Description:
The chain has 160 residues and is an alpha/beta fold. It has a domain at 14-18 and 27-118: Dihydrofolate Reductase, subunit A (3-Layer(aba) Sandwich). It is 21% helix and 32% strand. It is built from four helices and ten strands. The chain has helices at residues 26-36, 45-51, 79-87, 99-105; strands spanning 2-9, 14-16, 40-44, 59-63, 74-76, 93-95, 111-117, 125-126, 135-142, 146-153. An eight-stranded mixed beta sheet has the order 5-4-3-6-1-7-10-9, with helices on both faces. It is globular, with a radius of gyration of 15 Å.
Amino acid sequence: MIIIIAAMTKRGRVIGKEGWLPWAIPVELALFRKLTRNSTVIMGRKTYEAINRALPERHNIVVSRSKYFIPDAEVCISIKSALKKAKSYGKNIFIIGGAEIYRVSMPFADKMYLSFIKKEYAGDTYFPAWDEREWLVEKKEDHPEFTVVVYGRKTNLNLS
């Protein structure tokens, strides 16, 4: 299963500011860790550089056309090649950002875990717009600082 996972402001869809999250919400980060543990994660080069390491207990794949070697991660030049490599591991695949990786992976996603941050933050990086008519809300979970909404694709448009 290909799953997009992101945290963003509800109105502005802000996901980042100057290369990092504009908020610090430990409970939301713990949820991310729990959901992605023992899976495969795909991220863009800028996201990898912001994290500054491979995520432990996960297969890490970085999409990059400029870097060819990244310690503890596989490098692929496109989202299609990254998805092909990720599928070879036989685990859930989580798309973890950034904005361009979310945009190009959206047609392939089966599910989305989106955390909507209740407070608005300024930022310079945004989650792409998506057609909500293609998705069903499977679950909502409210927390004091954010709400997690799990979306499942209505009709699988998986282009693999």
